[in-house]
Amino acid sequence: MIPLNLNKIWEELRKNTRRINSLQRSVDLINADREILETIQGRIAGLEEQIKLMRKHDTESAKTLTAEVAASGERIEGKVEEIHDTIEAKKIIKTKPESLWQRLAKRLRG
Fold first, then answer.
1. Fewest 10 Å CB contacts: which of 15, 38, 90, 110?
2. Predicted pLDDT at 102
């Protein structure tokens, strides 16, 4: 039979082995979590870069669009003025037709 003192040593050794195994599982989980967090961090950094590029593109697009709208406005104003000038050049002054009474009065006068 194992002496009582040796029995306590074996029991402590088993407890320590269970603790070590439990700690090893915890360390493995922490390492897995770290890897997951590093992956997430890398993806976030990639998304931040994409957002910066998209904002830059949006800013450039807005500037281009504003310039195109201004140019179109100027062209439209030019066309409007051109059409206005054409209408003014072709404008014929029309008089109001005489009424029947005015025509009869004119004939009677002479």
1. 110
2. 81
DSSP H helices, the chain, are 4-90, 100-109
Amino acid, res. 85: D
Asked if residues 10 and 2 have their Cβ atoms less than 8 Å apart, the reply is: yes
Tell me how far apart the alpha carbons of residues 30 and 25 are, in angstroms, rounded to a whole number: 9
- For the chain, what's the residue count? 110
Q: Where are the domains of the chain?
A: 4-86
Task: Using DSSP, state whether 1 is helix, strand or coil.
Answer: coil
Rounded to whole angstroms, how far apart are CA atoms 8 and 2?
10
pLDDT at 84: 82
Q: For residues 27 and 19, what is the distance between their CA atoms, to the nearest angstrom?
A: 12
Spatial separation of the C-alpha atoms in residues 70 and 94, rounded to whole Å: 39
